[in-house]
UniProtKB/TrEMBL annotation:
Keywords: Annexin, Calcium, Calcium/phospholipid-binding, Repeat. It comes from Solea senegalensis (Senegalese sole). Pfam families: Annexin (PF00191). Residues 1-103 have a biased composition (Low complexity). GO terms for molecular function: calcium ion binding; calcium-dependent phospholipid binding; phosphatidylserine binding. Residues 149-160 have a biased composition (Pro residues). Residues 1-193 are annotated as: Disordered. Residues 125-148 have a biased composition (Gly residues). Belongs to the annexin family. This is Annexin A4-like.
């Protein structure tokens, strides 16, 4: 039997019916060595498990070596006429595993090595494989490859994933990932506002009280204080102010400040979830609805953040967010928002390329490849799948159709549902670029949409403001800092520039 990649050698083991007969120049059969076995090594799908008919260990034979099949010191010495040693052991077999120095011992059904704190382990499918020790591409460190396998960021062999529970609804996220991808390696903290060392809310409220007491207000003191504290350091000031002075800090700020500067300061004094809930309320109530605000918040927050927003919204306004959305919107746009406000998006980091291709095909079949459009199919995929999975879906869609998904949506839909679907796609595809676009739209043209400007600057200042600044400069050829300076003024501008964090 010939192994792929090993050229036949004179004096080696030519394939003979029934096993390996003695050949001139080969290994003579030795007492206590490996007895001739019928059938030699039968090829097994899925790896190198020891099979009946192989070479059982015999007294006096070669002792097994740790580390699998690669040529090891103290293992099988090379002999004239035998197989020349190959770096890395046996070459990969169809459906098998590349061997590595110090590789994994054979496992029935593939290699499965769950690791505590790593990515969720997946049940092995036929010929499948699991996570390498320590997890694959653990966040915060260098991306790890598989020893003896393809280098990081190179395509992996397409091992089939496990079938879905229902043919019409593939088992998304289940089975074995055919091309697993880890989330992008963390680039560290990307916010523009950092914790102030040794901040004490009791001392901070003294500064605020002094700034607001007496004739006039010291706006610069307020800007310097709030612009150098993170949200978790600002929010406790509300309780500390009431404890120290028996007065409501928010009420005092409202009475001392005016205009957009007042709105910005009050936004900074709320927790992120409180601020989001109040913005959603403002977007829904009154004449007209700010649909873009609803989509912006609901498409960019995590499940935990959306659950907290729902909780605060119900407590503050006596009505669920879902009910408010349902009473103020209609049609497929309402369905999109209701789906997003459930906070049930899959958040697993693994990606199965085979399922991403299936979803891309479904989106094509529901839109470009159909008379009319099946908006519910778009809704089901865009609102339920994980963000890494959807990024793979967008890539597969473009490869398949030669067109970006958002352009297909613009061709197939219209009105609020078009704007909503496109915003969801853009936000998931590149979140900092999406927010850079939101900021540019808020400041471009006649007038400034200050509510949008304040909301984005406050909500992203501790998440990805540095990335937003990079995307803004790349896309518009002008720094965000410079655009804010040109478009705003006074104390409002000073505090916005504090949140921006610097010029690029």
């Amino acid at each position: 039997m010939s192994y792929p990649g090993y050229p036949p050698q004179s004096g080696g083991y030519p394939q003979q019916p029934g096993g390996y007969p003695q050949q001139p120049g080969g290994y003579p059969q030795q007492p206590g060595g490996y007895p001739q076995q019928p059938g030699g090594y039968p090829q097994q799908p899925g790896g190198y498990p020891q099979q009946p008919g192989g070479y059982p260990q015999q007294p006096g034979g070669y002792p097994p070596q740790a580390g699998g099949y690669p040529h090891q010191a103290g293992g099988y010495p090379p002999a004239a006429g035998g197989y020349p040693p190959a770096a890395g052991g046996y070459p990969p077999q169809a459906g098998g595993y590349p061997a590595s120095a110090g590789g994994f011992p054979p496992q029935a059904g593939g290699y499965q090595q769950p690791s505590a704190g790593g990515y969720p382990s997946m049940p092995p499918a036929g010929g499948g494989w699991g996570a390498a020790p320590g997890g694959y591409g653990a966040p915060g460190g260098a991306q790890q490859g598989y020893p003896g396998g393809p280098a990081p960021n190179q395509p992996m062999p397409n091992y089939p994933g496990a079938p879905g529970a229902q043919p019409s609804n593939p088992g998304y996220g289940g089975g074995v990932p055919s091309n697993p991808k880890a989330p992008a390696i963390s680039k560290g903290y990307r916010g523009s506002i950092k914790d102030f060392p040794g901040a004490d809310p009791l001392r901070d409220v003294e500064v605020l009280r002094k700034a607001m007491k007496g004739f006039g207000t010291d706006e610069n003191a307020i800007i310097e204080l709030l612009g150098s504290r993170t949200n978790k350091q600002r929010v406790p000031m509300v309780a500390a102010y009431k404890t120290t002075y028996g007065k409501d800090l928010m009420h005092d700020l409202k009475s001392e400040l005016t205009g957009n500067f007042e709105k910005l300061v009050l936004a900074m004094m709320k927790s992120h979830a409180q601020f989001d809930a109040s913005e959603l309320r403002e977007a829904i109530k009154g004449a007209g609805t700010d649909e873009a605000c609803l989509i912006e918040i609901l498409s960019s927050r995590s499940n935990a953040e959306i659950h907290e927003i729902n909780k605060i919204y119900k407590a503050e306004y006596g009505k669920t967010l879902e009910d408010s959305i349902s009473s103020d919107t209609s049609g497929h746009f309402r369905r999109l928002l209701v789906s997003l406000c459930q906070g049930n998006r899959d958040e697993r980091p693994t990606v199965d390329i085979s399922l991403a291709k299936q979803d891309a095909q479904k989106l094509h079949a529901a839109g470009e490849n159909k008379v009319g459009t099946d908006e519910s199919q778009f809704n089901a995929i865009l609102c339920a799948r994980s963000k890494p999975h959807l990024q793979a879906v967008f890539h597969e869609y473009q490869q398949m159709c030669g067109r970006e998904l958002e352009k297909s949506i613009c061709r197939e839909m219209s009105g609020n549902v078009e704007d909503g679907m496109v915003a969801v796609v853009k936000c998931i595809k590149n979140t900092p670029a999406y927010f850079a676009g939101r900021l540019h739209k808020a400041m471009h043209g006649a007038g400034t949409k200050d509510r949008t400007l304040i909301r984005v600057m406050v909500s992203r200042s501790e998440i990805d403001m540095l990335d937003i600044r990079q995307e803004y400069m790349k896309k518009y050829g002008k720094s965000l800092y410079a655009h804010i300076s040109d478009d705003t003024s006074g104390d409002y501008k000073k505090l916005l520039l504090k949140l921006c964090g610097g010029n690029d």
